[in-house]
Fold:
Amino acid sequence: MKVLAAMSGGVDSAVAAARAVEAGHEVVGVHLALSRMPGTLRTGSRGCCTIEDSMDAQRAANLIGIPYYVWDFSEKFKAEVVDDFISEYNSGRTPNPCMRCNERIKFAALLEKALALGFDAVCTGHYASLLTDEEGNLELHRSMALAKDQSYVLGVLTSEQLKHSMFPIGHTASKDVIRAEAAARGLSVAAKPDSYDICFIPEGDTQDWLAERLGSTAGEIVDMDGNVLGNHQGAHGFTVGQRKGLQLGKPAVDGKPRYVLAVDVITNKVVVGPQQALAVVEISGDRFTWCGKPKENPETFFDAHVQVRAHGEQVPATVAVVDGALVMRLEEPILGVAPGQTAVVYLGTRVLAQTTIDRTVSAVDAFSTGSASAGA
Amino acid sequence: MSVYLDNAATTPVRAEVLTEYTKYLQLLGNPSSVHTSGQLVRQALEEARESLAKTIDCDRSEVLFTSGGTESTNLAIKGIYWQRSAENSKRNVIITAGTEHHGVIDPIEWLEAQQSAEIVLVPVNFDGEIDLDWLAEYLTADHERVALISLMWANNETGVITDINKVTALAKKYLIPVHTDAVAAFGHMPTSFKDSGLQAMSISAHKIGGPVGVGALIVSRSTKLVSIIHGGGQERGMRSGTMNAPAAKAFALAAEICIQNLHSEIQRTQLLSDRLVAEVSAITENISLTAAKANRLANITHFTLAGASGESLLFLLDQKGIFVSTGSACQAGVNRPSHVLIAMGRTEDQAKGCLRITFGHDNTEADVECVIQELPAAIESALSAGLSSQ
Structure:
């Protein structure tokens, strides 16, 4: 196969490219330029947008012995990922930009361009496994390296996209193995630190970055009954589940810490309350996709697991499609789930479906978000 | 097998030049040393200066060796600006155009940001030609504030030639110094410094079959400028640092060969370009010759392809072993929409669909054949990939 290896300049994608070569594929390395001004966006090795990262990717491609190119997706990245991130926050939601990037850039714009230019597949350094069921259908599964598993952010991939995807490092036991392999291959990125932050936020301070773009208007911090407890300098700085930085002088009556329960961008109010009010027992989303073959009879509730954060635990749940929405009834409540986040449904290790959360049902009465829950 | 058609980026070093270069690399001595060993190297350097002066048609004392085109343009622009504004603090205007190379635009923008210079851009038309009538009117009205004019002799992306004599004739009236970036022009069209009326001209060796890392700034004897590099006072105090005699020798020989063959090479590359333009234009109506109406260099051919990115085209041709470019400036290997095309009134999308094919001394009809053979399929794929940024 003719394979395009997306190379971020990090160790995972470098080893993935090397393994694709060894598997006998004709591999070409491509670094995605996602920033218009790579030099000014980020320094050091924290993200995936700097000139150094593109140099690291090029050095790795040279050592692996494959051709290397940089393709410019900066405009599309800004429109589809960065602007989406800002507008989601502006609507009081908490988006996952890595997921958007996979959905709209890496496995959409890049894949389409690759196919048009004669490639058969795109290979990335994601920790996830592609398996085939007895009927020959492709399935996306969690990585063997569970601590690094990235199947969650790939949950947006459809059957068609899976067909043209390759994840050569998914079957690896741990990141240490990848680092050791990179060192053995003489790749200088072997010891490069992992990137955890959002790649387009230079200083890693999401709140400041958002405030610069959305402005900040002071408003009230209220409790669940609407009593004013204090003031904030801008609602965008808060995320559901946050405890620190509320700066409320008066302690709660019960003496227990208070958490952000909701961010209402229309009234510019931040609602706080006790931890138990964060507990969500049901979530649902209108826009959902199947990853691989759809579930048969999805209208009947079935047992599954649900994960709502990239590095979060999965919880057992019963799931069904109700009135066109994917409804997940959680057997164990999850704390601080916010609309805008992505929920991924697993059957065992297999990724079955994903949706952007539109509504949540709180364990505490009357503290649900979104409009009336479809499943309630 | 590969075909190299990116000679405006850099050229292959000619075999004779390589021999000359390596021969003088083995010569021991610092040209500033008093002893015989040093004097022999100084002799080589001065031979090179004299020989280069002949090819440029200037006085030997007007040749300042530098590390290349960008150092030359920086020295000319900053050096003349500092001199002229020190003489008269009212002079803070630098006249240039949006189609200039970054080696000119960036030092001027630096002077604007750091030293209160004011940039005045001469309008450029759809064919990349600068509006000399506008320049004449501007100078009539505001010449007292002008520190210098910097306009390129020929454009490195489109090949469009500026009538530099007309520029200097306009400037002469007000004794305003004119610098030209002749990096693309020198060795590819007649460029007599004496006849040009210029005060300064930047040139580079690796665009004419010489090595990378050597260039020259030609400065007329009456022109004063402030140095940007300070040290041992070499090159008349204008460019401190041990002089690079082997590179100067190589540069001089490359220039000599180029100028000797100039007219026959122009004819030869013009035939290659004409053939290319005729064949490529017939592939699809989406592709067209850029700056078709302008007077252009024979060795630079620039096409605009609607609905596709030059990035895709470059990739596809590279996969076939054909090395071309989009012509735009690269940062970290990314092709940005060409600022030259944007200055010529194209949109960002139009400025992305570029293909620049530039001939050198060793390109032949067979190379053109090769491109013509591979280009239709590449254009088709590039069009189907579209503009990836949308």
Notes: Chain A has a mean pLDDT of 87. The longest strand of chain A covers residues 325-335. The first helix of chain A runs from residue 11 to 22.
